[in-house]
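Suppose a colleague, Dr. K., hands you the sequence of a protein chain of 165 amino acids and asks what its three-dimensional shape might be. Before reaching for any lab equipment, you can write down a predicted structure in token form. Begin with the sequence itself:
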Amino acid sequence: MKIPLLRTITLVITICCGAMPGRGDVATDTETAAHRSVLDLAGAFTNDGFKMRDGAYTSTLKAGESAVVEVNLYSGNQYWFAVSTADAKSAVSIGVYNEAGNMVKSEPFASRAADGAKDGAMDTDAASTNRAAAGFAPEASGPYYIKITNTTGVPATCCLIYSYK
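The predicted structure, expressed as tokens, is then:
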């Protein structure tokens, strides 16, 4: 699947040197809940030796809306990109794309937060979960794009963080 970068990118934020710029104001309760949920998910990757990058990207996505975040990745490293919504009843998906806009093969992981129906268990249907992650090891250094999509029919506040080793 190819992303027409100029037409479908609803938001591009460049992440350099570990900084993930935000709006500059105080986080809402919903943003804090999404951040707490994604930290819980990313904790599983730190148990495998991954280090979390400082900062987080938070956004409220309308039904079916996507956000694209640009990251600079280095060959020889492994990465996990984790995203979560504040509401366990909402759903989100995540994908990794190269600089040409082509989806790259990544290792999927999806789960529902502990307050959701699946009690934090692994879910093979990533389109129905409020927490998702993609593992990726780039063959070439350079810019890559992380696409987060709200797959539910209602607005959802989500938070993205990533880990590396």
